[in-house]
Amino acid sequence: MGSLEKSLGRKVEIAEAKEIIRDAIADLFDIQFESAELSATERQYERELLERYDNEEWFWANSIPKRFPDIPPGASIAEHALKIPNGPLVRARVLKTDDAFLDCSLTGWYHGVRPIDALEKVEARLKDLPLDGQAVLAAIEKAYQEEQLEIDQCAPEDLQKVIMQAL
């Protein structure tokens, strides 16, 4: 993975990067973008996203030392990333023993997730479960139903698959 600034040999301002990305998307899909104001709902969503993600605390929150600071004897961390067809890239980090989940961290995307803490709600349901695919799927489905979770293009089976492949 490289740096755009390093490759170009110059500083790239955010406005320039946004313009290049916008133009590339327009060319790729043969569309024209029109400038418009955000709706009240879009502004609220923007505020929620900035409040949640625009800080160093969030950036480092899912790092292994922060998320799993005290790994018990006999426990280990397993990790797997999977690109869901037509959906997000999902990374699962699982703190586990030989027979149970101790904790789980799901990362990989930042939009299309409602409520904004949907991933944490799924993670909470996985704690102390046996390392069994059916138990994992049942817990995820229960979280989707009871918490009214919406994760764009990512069904409970998709999350189960990436989690179980981490093992």
Essential attributes:
167 residues, alpha+beta, Enolase-like, domain 1, 3-stranded antiparallel beta sheet, two-stranded antiparallel ribbon, 5 strands
Instruction: Note the total helix count.
Output: 8
Oligomerization state of this entry? single chain
Output the CATH topology of one domain.
Enolase-like, domain 1
Q: In total, how many beta strands?
A: 5
Q: Element order, helices and strands?
A: HHHHHEEEEHHEH
**Relative strand content:** 15-25%
Q: Please name the fourth-level CATH homologous superfamily of one domain.
A: CO dehydrogenase flavoprotein, C-terminal domain
What is the overall silhouette? globular
How far the N terminus sits from the C terminus, by CA atoms, comes to 26 Å
Poorly predicted runs are none
Please tell me how large the radius of gyration is: 19 Å
Under the CATH scheme, the architecture of one domain is 2-Layer Sandwich
The largest beta-sheet arranges its strands as 1-2-3
Write down the CATH class of one domain. Alpha Beta
Average the pLDDT over all residues and give the rounded result: 89
Write the layout of secondary structure elements.
Blueprint: H1 4-8, H2 14-29, H3 40-53, H4 56-61, H5 64-67, E1 76-83, E2 89-96, E3 101-107, E4 113-114, H6 118-126, H7 133-146, E5 150-151, H8 156-166
Helix pairs in contact: 6-7, 7-8
Could you provide a short overview of the structure?
The protein is of the alpha+beta class and 167 residues long. It has a domain at 70-166: Enolase-like, domain 1, CATH 3.30.390. It is built from 8 helices and 5 strands.
